[in-house]
Amino acid sequence: xxxxxxxxxxxxxxxxxxxxxxxxxxxxxxxxxxxxxxxxxxxxxxxxxxxxxxxxxxxxxxxxxxxxxxxxxxxxxxxxxxxxxxxxxxxxxxxxxxxxxxxxxxxxxxxxxxxxxxxxxxxxxxxxxxxxxxxxxxxxxxxxxxxxxxxxxxxxxxxxxxxxxxxxxxxxxxxxxxxxxxxxxxxxxxxxxxxxxxxxxxxxxxxxxxxxxxxxxxxxxxxxxxxxxxxxxxxxxxxxxxxxxxxxxxxxxxxxxxxxxxxxxxxxxxxxxxxxxxxxxxxxxxxxxxxxxxxxxxxxxxxxxxxxxxxxxxxxxxxxxxxxxxxxxxxxxxxxxxxxxxxxxxxxxxxxxxxxxxxxxxxxxxxxxxxxxxxxxxxxxxxxxxxxxxxxxxxxxxxxxxxxxxxxxxx
Length: 411
Ligand code: PMP
Fold this sequence. Notes:
Elements: H1 4-7, H2 17-21, E1 25-26, H3 37-50, H4 60-79, E2 88-91, H5 94-109, E3 115-119, H6 128-137, E4 140-144, H7 154-160, E5 165-171, H8 183-192, E6 196-200, H9 212-215, E7 219-223, E8 234-238, H10 240-245, E9 256-259, E10 264-266, H11 280-296, H12 298-317, E11 322-324, E12 336-341, H13 346-355, E13 358-359, E14 361-363, H14 368-373, E15 379-383, H15 390-406
Parallel strand pairs: 1-13, 3-4, 3-5, 5-6, 6-7
Antiparallel strand pairs: 2-8, 7-8, 9-10, 11-12, 12-15, 14-15
Helix pairs in contact: 3-11, 4-11, 5-6, 12-15
């Protein structure tokens, strides 16, 4: 059990060199998280002591590099409780993982009139690849709409998923609303009609435990850099039988077991989907990030993030002219608070906060159809991680409270 009194007292920032060296309240964690020293060290250690091209050389150094890379895969397998490490494909990021599914599974399995069901709140990365594949196959993309509070009802899922549906793609947590989506319902609705379910876990993997077997997702994607790991390493989980039946996404070196003048045999999973020289140092960094997360535990991470979110949410309710998008309670925001300030452009909000040492994001958050659907236009977004402190929230709130006055409005 996490003790409420001690919950926010521990200083995690000392583990993060950038945060220890800079006096900023970093509240742009949904875009990318800061990196603990152990992650930076793991990447550095790879290049300092073990650098060789993994999966190729037969000399000791190359085998060390291979072991480091494959150990990271096993760490990811355990992290999301996949049945086999062959189900873990390393990619560059969530975007590449989703494109892999769209190009490889989508192009091979969709025909004119088939339907791909996604939601209006998806990040462009879980929307544009489906449109691309629909254009090329004659399939149709359908959107599940959300209510003003960001919720998606079971009825909306049931209405959208039909016998024509072949793919259901949904984010577990929206990067704008921070709301936990009904993925269990979406996955079971997909399976009822024989469709596959693709889960975008970019905003959930850093914040809560994921069990792909319990969830029964067919594919699940996330990025290392959003969960304390390095940029340039991402993950695609896929059920083995599906991955085995899919054609490669990229082809070339590394992903074959045999090539003749006119033919080739592809490498077994997972290497069939990892063409070219891999990002072994990135995988080592992701492995270190997973170990660091495990050493803290999701019970503590979730409890701290919920406490910080509530502090910020409650204080924002009391600032005149500030409006939070989506859920009406703090519990409906998994560390993400997207908001507007009446009469102030989000870029001005971000610039003023920055002048006070608070880093947030402003713009459309790569989810323009959602902002159109909610009629908000551009917004500002503060996103929290467990290593943020109550002092970070206070600094944010203090600065936010002055914005309208600084822009020439009365308080
Ligand atoms: N999906 C969601 C929900 C996201 O928040 C993001 C990143 N903001 C992405 C996909 C894309 O992630 P990446 O840029 O790491 O590919």
